[in-house]
Protein backbone atom coordinates (compact mmCIF):
# COMPACT_ATOMS: atom_id res chain seq x y z
CA UNK A 1 0.00 0.00 0.00
CA UNK A 2 1.47 3.39 -0.91
CA UNK A 3 1.51 6.10 1.71
CA UNK A 4 1.88 9.78 0.87
CA UNK A 5 2.93 12.46 3.32
CA UNK A 6 0.82 15.63 3.74
CA UNK A 7 3.42 17.58 1.71
CA UNK A 8 3.24 15.00 -1.10
CA UNK A 9 -0.57 15.23 -1.02
CA UNK A 10 -0.41 19.04 -1.34
CA UNK A 11 2.11 18.75 -4.21
CA UNK A 12 -0.17 16.27 -6.00
CA UNK A 13 -3.15 18.62 -5.51
CA UNK A 14 -1.22 21.62 -6.90
CA UNK A 15 -0.05 19.46 -9.83
CA UNK A 16 -3.69 18.63 -10.72
CA UNK A 17 -4.59 22.34 -10.49
CA UNK A 18 -1.75 23.12 -12.91
CA UNK A 19 -2.76 20.37 -15.36
CA UNK A 20 -6.33 21.67 -15.29
CA UNK A 21 -5.20 25.24 -15.94
CA UNK A 22 -3.00 24.15 -18.84
CA UNK A 23 -5.82 22.15 -20.46
CA UNK A 24 -8.19 25.09 -20.14
CA UNK A 25 -5.61 27.33 -21.84
CA UNK A 26 -4.82 24.77 -24.58
CA UNK A 27 -8.35 23.98 -25.59
CA UNK A 28 -9.73 27.48 -25.01
CA UNK A 29 -12.70 25.93 -23.22
CA UNK A 30 -13.38 28.99 -21.13
CA UNK A 31 -13.42 32.68 -21.79
CA UNK A 32 -11.11 35.08 -20.00
CA UNK A 33 -13.57 35.76 -17.14
CA UNK A 34 -14.05 32.13 -16.14
CA UNK A 35 -10.32 31.57 -16.50
CA UNK A 36 -9.79 34.15 -13.79
CA UNK A 37 -12.54 32.79 -11.54
CA UNK A 38 -11.63 29.11 -11.69
CA UNK A 39 -7.99 29.46 -10.59
CA UNK A 40 -9.21 31.79 -7.84
CA UNK A 41 -11.72 29.17 -6.67
CA UNK A 42 -9.24 26.33 -6.91
CA UNK A 43 -6.64 28.47 -5.17
CA UNK A 44 -9.05 29.14 -2.29
CA UNK A 45 -9.85 25.43 -2.00
CA UNK A 46 -6.12 24.70 -1.98
CA UNK A 47 -5.40 27.35 0.66
CA UNK A 48 -8.30 26.06 2.77
CA UNK A 49 -7.04 22.46 2.42
CA UNK A 50 -3.56 23.56 3.40
CA UNK A 51 -4.92 25.49 6.39
CA UNK A 52 -6.89 22.41 7.54
CA UNK A 53 -3.83 20.23 7.11
CA UNK A 54 -1.66 22.57 9.18
CA UNK A 55 -4.41 22.69 11.81
CA UNK A 56 -4.45 18.88 11.97
CA UNK A 57 -0.67 18.73 12.32
CA UNK A 58 -0.78 21.36 15.08
CA UNK A 59 -3.47 19.40 16.93
CA UNK A 60 -1.39 16.20 16.71
CA UNK A 61 1.65 18.02 18.12
CA UNK A 62 -0.47 19.56 20.91
CA UNK A 63 -1.90 16.20 22.03
CA UNK A 64 1.20 14.02 21.58
CA UNK A 65 2.66 13.30 25.08
CA UNK A 66 0.18 15.71 26.77
CA UNK A 67 -1.26 14.56 30.10
CA UNK A 68 -5.02 14.33 29.46
CA UNK A 69 -7.47 13.55 32.27
CA UNK A 70 -10.88 12.28 31.12
CA UNK A 71 -13.79 11.87 33.55
CA UNK A 72 -16.61 9.46 32.74
CA UNK A 73 -14.25 7.29 30.69
CA UNK A 74 -16.12 4.05 31.43
CA UNK A 75 -18.85 4.63 28.89
CA UNK A 76 -20.25 6.57 25.92
CA UNK A 77 -18.53 9.78 24.87
CA UNK A 78 -15.79 9.55 27.54
CA UNK A 79 -14.77 6.10 26.33
CA UNK A 80 -14.63 7.27 22.69
CA UNK A 81 -12.59 10.34 23.72
CA UNK A 82 -10.18 7.99 25.49
CA UNK A 83 -9.70 6.06 22.22
CA UNK A 84 -9.11 9.18 20.10
CA UNK A 85 -6.70 10.85 22.54
CA UNK A 86 -4.86 7.56 23.20
CA UNK A 87 -4.27 7.02 19.47
CA UNK A 88 -2.91 10.57 19.23
CA UNK A 89 -0.26 9.76 21.85
CA UNK A 90 -1.73 11.43 24.96
CA UNK A 91 -0.70 10.30 28.46
CA UNK A 92 -4.18 9.45 29.70
CA UNK A 93 -5.64 9.44 33.18
CA UNK A 94 -9.01 7.69 32.88
CA UNK A 95 -11.56 8.41 35.62
CA UNK A 96 -14.84 6.75 36.56
CA UNK A 97 -16.62 5.07 39.44
CA UNK A 98 -16.10 1.49 38.26
CA UNK A 99 -12.48 0.26 38.60
CA UNK A 100 -13.16 -2.93 36.61
CA UNK A 101 -14.60 -1.03 33.63
CA UNK A 102 -11.62 1.33 33.65
CA UNK A 103 -9.20 -1.62 33.69
CA UNK A 104 -11.14 -3.23 30.82
CA UNK A 105 -10.77 -0.02 28.82
CA UNK A 106 -7.01 0.12 29.48
CA UNK A 107 -6.74 -3.48 28.23
CA UNK A 108 -8.86 -2.64 25.17
CA UNK A 109 -6.68 0.38 24.34
CA UNK A 110 -3.32 -1.25 24.88
CA UNK A 111 -4.22 -4.42 23.01
CA UNK A 112 -5.80 -2.62 20.03
CA UNK A 113 -4.24 -2.75 16.58
CA UNK A 114 -3.00 0.84 16.88
CA UNK A 115 0.33 0.01 18.45
CA UNK A 116 3.12 2.52 18.17
CA UNK A 117 5.92 3.89 20.33
CA UNK A 118 4.14 7.22 20.64
CA UNK A 119 1.34 5.66 22.74
CA UNK A 120 1.41 5.58 26.54
CA UNK A 121 -0.27 3.12 28.90
CA UNK A 122 -3.14 5.00 30.62
CA UNK A 123 -3.47 5.45 34.39
CA UNK A 124 -6.83 5.03 36.09
CA UNK A 125 -8.34 6.86 39.06
CA UNK A 126 -11.63 5.78 40.62
CA UNK A 127 -13.92 8.26 42.37
CA UNK A 128 -17.50 9.52 42.60
CA UNK A 129 -17.91 13.10 41.36
CA UNK A 130 -20.88 13.61 43.68
CA UNK A 131 -18.55 13.15 46.68
CA UNK A 132 -16.57 16.41 46.96
CA UNK A 133 -14.01 14.96 49.41
CA UNK A 134 -13.38 12.05 47.07
CA UNK A 135 -12.89 14.54 44.23
CA UNK A 136 -10.21 16.43 46.11
CA UNK A 137 -8.30 13.23 47.05
CA UNK A 138 -8.62 12.05 43.44
CA UNK A 139 -7.06 15.33 42.23
CA UNK A 140 -4.16 14.78 44.66
CA UNK A 141 -3.76 11.22 43.40
CA UNK A 142 -3.75 12.41 39.78
CA UNK A 143 -1.13 15.10 40.41
CA UNK A 144 1.03 12.69 42.42
CA UNK A 145 0.82 10.12 39.65
CA UNK A 146 1.46 12.31 36.59
CA UNK A 147 2.97 15.52 38.00
CA UNK A 148 1.08 18.01 35.88
CA UNK A 149 -2.17 17.98 33.96
CA UNK A 150 -2.10 19.56 30.50
CA UNK A 151 -5.74 18.96 29.54
CA UNK A 152 -8.67 18.17 31.85
CA UNK A 153 -11.78 16.89 30.05
CA UNK A 154 -14.80 17.20 32.35
CA UNK A 155 -17.05 14.75 30.53
CA UNK A 156 -18.83 12.64 33.18
CA UNK A 157 -22.48 13.38 33.70
CA UNK A 158 -25.92 12.07 34.46
CA UNK A 159 -29.28 13.00 33.00
CA UNK A 160 -32.75 13.17 34.47
CA UNK A 161 -36.39 12.72 33.48
CA UNK A 162 -39.31 14.07 35.50
CA UNK A 163 -41.76 16.79 36.33
CA UNK A 164 -40.63 19.55 38.69
CA UNK A 165 -43.63 18.95 40.97
CA UNK A 166 -42.82 15.24 41.44
CA UNK A 167 -39.04 15.55 41.86
CA UNK A 168 -37.36 15.25 45.26
CA UNK A 169 -34.96 18.10 45.98
CA UNK A 170 -32.39 15.39 46.78
CA UNK A 171 -32.51 14.39 43.11
CA UNK A 172 -31.98 18.00 42.00
CA UNK A 173 -28.99 18.12 44.37
CA UNK A 174 -27.53 14.82 43.17
CA UNK A 175 -27.69 15.86 39.49
CA UNK A 176 -26.17 19.22 40.39
CA UNK A 177 -23.38 17.58 42.42
CA UNK A 178 -22.49 15.17 39.61
CA UNK A 179 -22.75 17.57 36.66
CA UNK A 180 -21.75 20.85 38.26
CA UNK A 181 -20.14 20.81 41.74
CA UNK A 182 -17.99 17.72 40.99
CA UNK A 183 -16.43 19.15 37.80
CA UNK A 184 -16.06 22.56 39.49
CA UNK A 185 -14.25 20.99 42.47
CA UNK A 186 -11.98 18.88 40.24
CA UNK A 187 -11.13 21.90 38.08
CA UNK A 188 -10.36 24.04 41.14
CA UNK A 189 -8.09 21.32 42.54
CA UNK A 190 -6.13 21.01 39.27
CA UNK A 191 -5.96 24.73 38.36
CA UNK A 192 -3.19 25.86 40.79
CA UNK A 193 -0.71 23.46 39.14
CA UNK A 194 -1.70 24.81 35.69
CA UNK A 195 -1.37 28.41 36.89
CA UNK A 196 2.10 27.63 38.26
CA UNK A 197 3.35 26.55 34.86
CA UNK A 198 1.18 29.11 33.05
CA UNK A 199 -0.33 26.61 30.69
CA UNK A 200 -3.24 24.21 30.66
CA UNK A 201 -6.59 23.53 29.07
CA UNK A 202 -9.96 22.81 30.64
CA UNK A 203 -12.48 21.14 28.32
CA UNK A 204 -16.09 20.71 29.45
CA UNK A 205 -18.82 18.59 27.92
CA UNK A 206 -22.01 20.55 28.45
CA UNK A 207 -25.10 20.07 26.24
CA UNK A 208 -27.52 21.96 23.99
CA UNK A 209 -29.47 21.94 27.26
CA UNK A 210 -26.79 24.22 28.73
CA UNK A 211 -28.11 26.85 26.31
CA UNK A 212 -31.85 26.11 26.21
CA UNK A 213 -34.15 24.39 28.72
CA UNK A 214 -36.63 21.82 27.52
CA UNK A 215 -39.55 20.48 29.62
CA UNK A 216 -39.08 17.49 31.99
CA UNK A 217 -35.28 17.99 32.17
CA UNK A 218 -35.19 20.72 34.89
CA UNK A 219 -32.36 19.28 37.03
CA UNK A 220 -30.24 18.34 34.01
CA UNK A 221 -30.76 21.59 32.08
CA UNK A 222 -30.09 23.62 35.26
CA UNK A 223 -26.82 21.76 35.89
CA UNK A 224 -25.69 22.31 32.29
CA UNK A 225 -26.65 26.02 32.31
CA UNK A 226 -24.63 26.41 35.53
CA UNK A 227 -21.72 24.58 33.88
CA UNK A 228 -21.79 26.91 30.85
CA UNK A 229 -21.90 29.98 33.13
CA UNK A 230 -19.10 28.83 35.43
CA UNK A 231 -16.70 27.88 32.66
CA UNK A 232 -17.42 31.08 30.70
CA UNK A 233 -16.35 33.01 33.82
CA UNK A 234 -13.30 30.76 34.21
CA UNK A 235 -12.23 31.42 30.59
CA UNK A 236 -12.14 35.17 31.22
CA UNK A 237 -10.36 34.82 34.57
CA UNK A 238 -7.73 32.41 33.27
CA UNK A 239 -6.71 34.45 30.23
CA UNK A 240 -3.75 36.12 32.00
CA UNK A 241 -2.39 32.66 32.90
CA UNK A 242 -2.70 31.37 29.32
CA UNK A 243 -5.09 28.63 30.39
CA UNK A 244 -7.67 27.78 27.72
CA UNK A 245 -11.29 26.83 28.36
CA UNK A 246 -13.40 24.95 25.79
CA UNK A 247 -17.10 24.34 26.36
CA UNK A 248 -18.61 21.74 23.99
CA UNK A 249 -22.41 21.57 23.77
CA UNK A 250 -23.61 18.51 21.84
CA UNK A 251 -27.09 17.51 20.80
CA UNK A 252 -28.25 13.91 21.22
CA UNK A 253 -25.49 11.26 21.13
CA UNK A 254 -25.93 7.46 20.92
CA UNK A 255 -24.79 6.54 24.46
CA UNK A 256 -26.28 5.11 27.65
CA UNK A 257 -27.20 8.59 28.94
CA UNK A 258 -30.97 8.02 28.89
CA UNK A 259 -30.62 4.44 30.24
CA UNK A 260 -28.58 5.81 33.18
CA UNK A 261 -30.80 8.86 33.77
CA UNK A 262 -32.52 9.31 37.13
CA UNK A 263 -36.21 10.05 37.67
CA UNK A 264 -37.94 12.30 40.20
CA UNK A 265 -37.77 9.74 43.03
CA UNK A 266 -34.12 8.89 42.36
CA UNK A 267 -34.77 5.56 40.63
CA UNK A 268 -33.18 4.75 37.28
CA UNK A 269 -35.14 5.72 34.14
CA UNK A 270 -33.65 2.74 32.29
CA UNK A 271 -35.07 3.47 28.83
CA UNK A 272 -33.11 3.96 25.61
CA UNK A 273 -34.92 7.00 24.24
CA UNK A 274 -35.55 7.26 20.50
CA UNK A 275 -33.79 10.65 20.40
CA UNK A 276 -30.70 9.13 22.05
CA UNK A 277 -30.69 6.04 19.83
CA UNK A 278 -30.97 8.24 16.73
CA UNK A 279 -28.34 10.73 17.91
CA UNK A 280 -24.83 11.38 16.59
CA UNK A 281 -22.33 8.57 16.95
CA UNK A 282 -20.20 8.92 20.08
CA UNK A 283 -17.06 8.29 17.98
CA UNK A 284 -17.88 11.26 15.70
CA UNK A 285 -18.53 13.53 18.67
CA UNK A 286 -15.25 12.39 20.26
CA UNK A 287 -13.43 13.41 17.05
CA UNK A 288 -15.14 16.80 17.20
CA UNK A 289 -14.06 17.18 20.86
CA UNK A 290 -10.51 16.25 19.82
CA UNK A 291 -10.44 18.91 17.06
CA UNK A 292 -12.05 21.55 19.27
CA UNK A 293 -9.39 20.85 21.91
CA UNK A 294 -6.52 20.94 19.40
CA UNK A 295 -7.81 24.16 17.87
CA UNK A 296 -8.37 25.62 21.37
CA UNK A 297 -11.93 26.60 20.46
CA UNK A 298 -13.79 28.51 23.15
CA UNK A 299 -17.39 27.40 22.65
CA UNK A 300 -18.68 24.72 20.31
CA UNK A 301 -22.31 23.87 19.57
CA UNK A 302 -22.44 20.39 18.00
CA UNK A 303 -26.03 20.06 16.93
CA UNK A 304 -28.39 19.75 13.98
CA UNK A 305 -30.41 22.54 12.38
CA UNK A 306 -33.47 22.51 14.70
CA UNK A 307 -31.61 22.59 18.03
CA UNK A 308 -29.28 25.26 16.63
CA UNK A 309 -32.27 27.37 15.51
CA UNK A 310 -33.85 26.79 18.92
CA UNK A 311 -30.74 28.22 20.63
CA UNK A 312 -30.95 31.40 18.49
CA UNK A 313 -34.73 31.59 18.92
CA UNK A 314 -34.31 31.57 22.73
CA UNK A 315 -32.27 34.80 22.46
CA UNK A 316 -33.90 36.54 19.50
CA UNK A 317 -37.58 35.67 20.02
CA UNK A 318 -37.92 34.27 23.56
CA UNK A 319 -41.72 34.48 23.56
CA UNK A 320 -41.91 32.21 20.51
CA UNK A 321 -39.42 29.79 22.08
CA UNK A 322 -41.34 29.66 25.39
CA UNK A 323 -44.62 28.98 23.63
CA UNK A 324 -42.98 26.18 21.58
CA UNK A 325 -41.68 24.62 24.80
CA UNK A 326 -45.10 24.94 26.47
CA UNK A 327 -46.77 23.09 23.61
CA UNK A 328 -44.00 20.48 23.70
CA UNK A 329 -44.73 19.95 27.42
CA UNK A 330 -48.47 19.71 26.74
CA UNK A 331 -47.94 17.16 23.95
CA UNK A 332 -45.58 15.04 26.07
CA UNK A 333 -47.98 15.11 29.05
CA UNK A 334 -50.84 14.05 26.75
CA UNK A 335 -48.84 11.19 25.25
CA UNK A 336 -48.11 9.90 28.76
CA UNK A 337 -51.78 10.22 29.68
CA UNK A 338 -51.15 12.57 32.63
N1 LIG B 1 -25.74 11.24 25.19
C1 LIG B 1 -26.26 12.44 24.88
O1 LIG B 1 -27.28 12.55 24.19
C2 LIG B 1 -25.56 13.67 25.34
C3 LIG B 1 -24.61 13.65 26.34
N2 LIG B 1 -24.03 14.81 26.76
C4 LIG B 1 -23.07 14.80 27.85
O2 LIG B 1 -22.01 13.93 27.55
C5 LIG B 1 -21.39 13.51 28.76
C6 LIG B 1 -21.11 12.02 28.72
O3 LIG B 1 -22.34 11.32 28.76
P1 LIG B 1 -22.64 10.03 27.86
O4 LIG B 1 -21.41 9.41 27.42
O5 LIG B 1 -23.64 10.46 26.89
O6 LIG B 1 -23.42 9.13 28.92
P2 LIG B 1 -23.04 7.72 29.63
O7 LIG B 1 -24.11 7.47 30.60
O8 LIG B 1 -22.76 6.71 28.60
O9 LIG B 1 -21.68 8.05 30.37
C7 LIG B 1 -21.66 8.84 31.53
C8 LIG B 1 -20.31 8.73 32.20
O10 LIG B 1 -20.32 9.57 33.35
C9 LIG B 1 -19.88 8.81 34.47
N3 LIG B 1 -20.54 9.22 35.70
C10 LIG B 1 -21.87 9.35 35.93
N4 LIG B 1 -22.08 9.70 37.19
C11 LIG B 1 -20.87 9.80 37.77
C12 LIG B 1 -20.44 10.13 39.08
N5 LIG B 1 -21.29 10.41 40.07
N6 LIG B 1 -19.11 10.13 39.34
C13 LIG B 1 -18.23 9.82 38.38
N7 LIG B 1 -18.56 9.51 37.13
C14 LIG B 1 -19.88 9.50 36.83
C15 LIG B 1 -20.27 7.38 34.15
O11 LIG B 1 -19.40 6.54 34.87
P3 LIG B 1 -19.91 5.26 35.71
O12 LIG B 1 -19.41 4.10 34.96
O13 LIG B 1 -19.26 5.44 37.00
O14 LIG B 1 -21.41 5.32 35.77
C16 LIG B 1 -20.01 7.32 32.65
O15 LIG B 1 -18.67 7.04 32.40
C17 LIG B 1 -22.33 13.94 29.88
O16 LIG B 1 -21.82 15.09 30.51
C18 LIG B 1 -23.62 14.27 29.15
O17 LIG B 1 -24.38 15.22 29.83
C19 LIG B 1 -24.32 16.01 26.18
C20 LIG B 1 -25.22 16.08 25.17
C21 LIG B 1 -25.92 14.94 24.68
C1 LIG C 1 -37.27 29.60 13.25
C2 LIG C 1 -37.65 28.19 13.49
C3 LIG C 1 -37.20 27.71 14.82
C4 LIG C 1 -37.60 26.32 15.07
C5 LIG C 1 -37.27 25.92 16.46
C6 LIG C 1 -37.81 24.58 16.73
C7 LIG C 1 -37.65 24.19 18.14
C8 LIG C 1 -37.39 22.75 18.22
C9 LIG C 1 -37.02 22.35 19.61
C10 LIG C 1 -35.72 21.66 19.59
C11 LIG C 1 -35.36 21.20 20.95
C12 LIG C 1 -34.02 20.56 20.88
C13 LIG C 1 -33.66 19.90 22.15
C14 LIG C 1 -32.32 19.29 22.02
C15 LIG C 1 -31.91 18.66 23.29
C16 LIG C 1 -30.58 18.04 23.20
O1 LIG C 1 -30.00 17.89 22.15
O2 LIG C 1 -30.06 17.63 24.37
C17 LIG C 1 -28.82 16.96 24.38
C18 LIG C 1 -28.76 16.19 25.66
O3 LIG C 1 -28.05 16.56 26.57
C19 LIG C 1 -29.61 15.00 25.74
O4 LIG C 1 -29.90 14.65 27.06
P1 LIG C 1 -31.28 13.89 27.39
O5 LIG C 1 -31.10 13.38 28.76
O6 LIG C 1 -32.34 14.92 27.29
O7 LIG C 1 -31.43 12.80 26.38
TrEMBL record:
Cross-referenced Pfam families: adh_short
UniProtKB keywords: Membrane, NAD, NADP, Oxidoreductase, Transmembrane, Transmembrane helix
Entry's transmembrane regions: 32-54
Gene Ontology annotations for the cellular component aspect, listed alphabetically: cytoplasm; membrane
GO molecular function, one term: oxidoreductase activity, acting on the CH-OH group of donors, NAD or NADP as acceptor
Domain (Ketoreductase) ranges: 66-256
Keyword NAD: yes
GO biological process, one term: lipid metabolic process
Family designation: Belongs to the short-chain dehydrogenases/reductases (SDR) family.
Protein purpose: Putative oxidoreductase.
Protein name: Dehydrogenase/reductase SDR family member 7B
Organism field: Pleurodeles waltl
Amino acid sequence: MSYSTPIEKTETFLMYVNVFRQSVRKWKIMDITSMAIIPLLLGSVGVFGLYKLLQRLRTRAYIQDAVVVITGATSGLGKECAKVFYRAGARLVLCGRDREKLQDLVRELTSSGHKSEKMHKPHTVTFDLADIEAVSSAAEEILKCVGNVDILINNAGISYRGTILDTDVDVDKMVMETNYFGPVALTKAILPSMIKKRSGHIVVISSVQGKISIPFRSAYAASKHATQAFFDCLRAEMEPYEIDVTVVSPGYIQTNLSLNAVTGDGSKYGVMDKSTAEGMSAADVALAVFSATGEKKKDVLLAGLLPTLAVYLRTLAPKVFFSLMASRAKKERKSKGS
